[in-house]
Design goal:
Strand order of the largest sheet: 1-6-5-2-4-3
Number of strands: 6
Distance between the termini: 19 Å
Bound molecules: adenosine-5'-diphosphate
Order of helices and strands: HEEHHEEHEHEH
Structural class: alpha/beta
Shape: globular
Radius of gyration: 15 Å
CATH superfamily: Leucine Aminopeptidase, subunit E, domain 1
CATH class: Alpha Beta
Number of domains: 1
CATH architecture: 3-Layer(aba) Sandwich
Number of helices: 6
Length: 176
């Protein structure tokens, strides 16, 4: 098995272009489309994605559901719902951790060996990006240590600032 520092990587880019087996969507609980990364994924996948999502009956915060990737390079989309930041005393950290953990559990279930994540909840849901990156990296490393089935997780950041937060978190948690 590869070393942890080659199983989790940070890149700057557009997640809809990723050729991993699965990409994760930071959706809202209706799963019926939205702005940000959700809108970009639906535009790139084409209308069949929304048709499949309509049959899923939504998704509560912290949970995850899988669809096909349609016109995306990725075979699957794992839709998860992060917490809306309400100041930090409403279980936001735990819900964000669950969103990462349950998305990875879905990846194992469907046999995806490579998975790309966006920075869940750091857009319109306003989660502080440095804290979100810390939770993302900590949760992913802990899951990968327990699951050899997943070979690579790519953190696809939309800005230099977001990539910097994730690189810093990675440097910190890889030493633990
Ligand atoms: P949320 O509602 O979970 O906050 P958003 O889509 O508003 O979801 O934002 C989540 C993160 O995804 C933000 O950091 C945003 O900059 C980023 N993002 C937006 N579009 C893309 C994209 N095409 N690829 C990767 N990340 C994206």
């Amino acid at each position: 098995m590869k070393e942890m520092n080659s199983r989790i990587t940070v890149v700057k880019g557009d997640i809809t272009k990723e050729k991993t087996d699965a990409i994760v969507n930071a959706a809202n609980s209706s799963l019926l489309g939205g702005g940000g990364v959700d809108g970009a994924i639906h535009r790139a996948a084409g209308p069949d994605l929304l048709t499949e999502c309509s049959g899923l009956d939504g998704c509560p915060p912290g949970e995850a559901k899988t669809t096909k990737g349609y016109r995306l390079p990725a075979k699957f989309v794992i839709h998860t719902v992060g917490p809306i930041w309400r100041g930090g005393n409403s279980g936001e950290e735990k819900t964000l951790e669950n969103a990462y953990r349950n998305s990875l559990a879905e990846a194992v279930r469907i046999g995806a060996k490579s998975v790309a994540f966006p920075a869940i909840s750091t857009g319109v849901y306003r989660f502080p990006p440095d804290l979100a990156a810390d939770i993302a990296v900590r949760t992913i490393i802990s899951f990968l240590r327990e699951h050899d089935e997943i070979e690579e997780v790519r953190l696809v950041c939309f800005s230099d600032e977001s990539a910097e937060h994730h690189r810093r978190a990675l440097d910190k948690h890889l030493l633990e």
